[in-house]
Amino acid sequence: MSDELATTDATAEETVSADSEYKMSVTAKIDEVGPCKKHVTVTVPRADIDHFYSESVSELGGQATVPGFRVGHVPKKLIEKRFRQELTDQVKQRVLMESLELIAEDNDLDPINEPTIDVESLEIPEEGEFQFEFEVEVRPDFKLPEYKGLKLERPVREIGDKDVDEYLNRFLNQYGEMEERKEAAETEDYLEVSIKFEHDGKPLSEVNELVVPLRPVLRLQDAEIKDFGKLMAGVKTGDTRDTEIEVSEEAEQIEMRGEKVKATFTVKSVKFIKVPEINEELLERIGAESEEELREEVKNILERQVTYEQRQTTRSQVLDKITESADWDLPESLVTKQVENALRREILEMQQAGFSRQDIQARENELRQQAISSTRKALKEHFVLDKIATTENLEVQPQEIDMEIYYMAMQQGESPRRVRARMVKSGMIENLEAQLRERKAVDVILEKAEYTETEMEKPKENQVSAVARSVCSTFAAAASEEEEAGADEE
User: Fold this and answer.
1) How many H-runs (helices) and E-runs (strands) does the chain carry?
2) CA 20 to 30 Å from 273, out of 121, 188, 221, 445?
C-alpha cells in the first residue's frame, strides 16, 4: 500500500514546505513496507541545493583563513576550490536535516527510531536534483478508544499492625548478619550453592557461586524450578541434588527453547540471617529518628504496595478494554529492541511501590521467560496510553521524579544521590519519566471510571527465589552485575 505525503492520492507527489526564512521544497513519496514501517523517497530540487551551497560559501568565506588574504575577503572561487570537501559535507548535512524536518512536520510522521540512512554513501550531484531514500519505524496510526466512564473492579485492603510487624522483620533482614547453620536447612535459610547445567549429557553452563534463599520456587532468567523447596528440603553443607528443568519457550537462545536440561546443585554452606535489634545505631543507619517513624515509613511502603496492586489490577482491566481494538501489528525488530525497555519500566514501577529486591528479581525473571509476547502487549499499551497523555496534555515535573527516586532509595537502603546516579548511568531515568507519564494517563482513566470494590487477597510472601542467572548462559548476568557495581561506586 502506498501513502503520499500531504495528499490522499496514492500516486501523486506533493510539495513539502515549512514556514522559515528560506522555504525549502522537496518532493516526497511514502510507501508502507510493513507494520509501522515506512519507506520514504525524497527528491530535492536543484534550487534548494544551490541555495544551501551559496549560504555555506558565504559563511565559510566570512571566517576562512587563507594566506595572502584578509579574513572575509577571500575570493569565492578560491573558497570553492580550497574547501571543496568541507562545502560538500556541509551542504549534504543541511539538505538532509532540513528535508527530514519538513517531511516529519508537514506529514505527521511520528518516528519511533532514527531513520536508516547511510549518510556516508550519499553524494549530492554537481548538476540536477538530489534523491535519497530511507526507512523509518513510526508510531501506529489508530483511533483512540473511549476511555472515560469505564466500569472496573477495585480490590481494597487495610494495613494493620500485624502487616507492619511482618514486613518490618523482612525489611530488617538486609541489615542483619549471616550465621552458619550446622543442622539441616530450614525455609528462608540462605544456601550457598554451585550449579552445573547439562544438555544431552554435555556441559551447558555453570554457576560457581550463588547464594539463594530456600523457597518453594527458584526462578532463573530463562527457566523455573517449581519444586525447588522440596528438592532442597533438609540439605546440609556438602549435599548434592539433581533435577530436570525446561528452558523457556521465549529464551534468548532460540535453539534451546523448550529443551530439557539437567541441573546439579552442590551445597557449599547453609546460613541464616540474625535479625538485628532496633536501636539508635540501626535507626541512624536506616535514616529514621525513632522506631515509631520507622514503622510509619513501613506502613507507607505497604500502602504504596496496596496502591500498586490496585493500580495493576485496575490497569489490567483498563488496558484490556482500551486495547480491544488495537489489532494493528508491530514490527518484530521493534519488539525485540524494546524488550529491555519494557522490562525496565516494570522494574521501576515495583521499585517505586517499595517491593524487595527478591520480589523484583522474581518478576524480572518471569518477564524474561515471556519476553517477546509480554513486550508486544506492553508496546501496544504504551502507544495507547501515550496518545491519551498527549490528548490530556499530561507532563512529568522534575519534583515528581525526585520524589520517586527518594522512595526507591528508602526501600533499597541507599542515598537518593546514588540511586539517581545509577539510573542515569543505565539510562533508566528516561524510562522513569515515560513510566510516570503513562501512570498519569492511567490515573485520568481511573478518575473517570465507575468502581465496584472487592476484597484484596493478602499477598503470598517469599514463594519465589529469583536470581540474575541464565541456564543457557551466565555471561550476560555477570556483565550486568559488573555494571551495577560500577554505578554503586560512583
Assistant:
1) 15, 15
2) 221
